[in-house]
């Protein structure tokens, strides 16, 4: 049946097929994390290196460069600063990730602040763990906060810190 199509129809079909494949592949690698939305479903996609949708925990190694990509929709018009919160819960003890927690998400993370309510944004964070990180399993919360401490996006996931 396909062989009897005229050349231009054939090409169009092929192009459509490719487009569908591309969309499918892209949708697949946007979110690779089993996470809990601890905000109000602002998050549209979450990618973190070392994660796999089929695994409960993400595995982060000490010397790897890790990447986090967070796609979300702004739930308000923000000011010019947004705070990154990166908090690990180690058996009930909350620890802010040194060098990440409390830093300005508007500087060098792909966001152009102020954000506009209803618009989609991508927040990028590249980080490495360093030598002195304890090799434990933690629950990590990544949160973007406005100037009043209100949540713009919040994700919680399990991370296994390994050598
Ligand atoms: C930490 O998480 C890893 C990966 O999920 C698992 O294999 C390991 O048993 C866990 N260790 C502890 C002490 O819970």
UniProtKB/TrEMBL annotation:
Signal peptide: 1-27
Domain MD-2-related lipid-recognition: residue ranges: 35-159
Family note: Belongs to the NPC2 family.
SMART domains associated with the record: ML
Compartment list: Secreted
InterPro entries: Ig_E-set, ML_dom
Domain of life: Eukaryota
UniProt KW Membrane keyword: no
Key words of the record: Disulfide bond, Secreted, Signal
Coiled coil (residue ranges): none
Major localisation: secreted
Organism ancestry: Eukaryota, Metazoa, Ecdysozoa, Arthropoda, Chelicerata
One GO CC term, this protein: extracellular region
Protein name as annotated: Der f 22-like allergen
UniProt gene name: LOC113790016
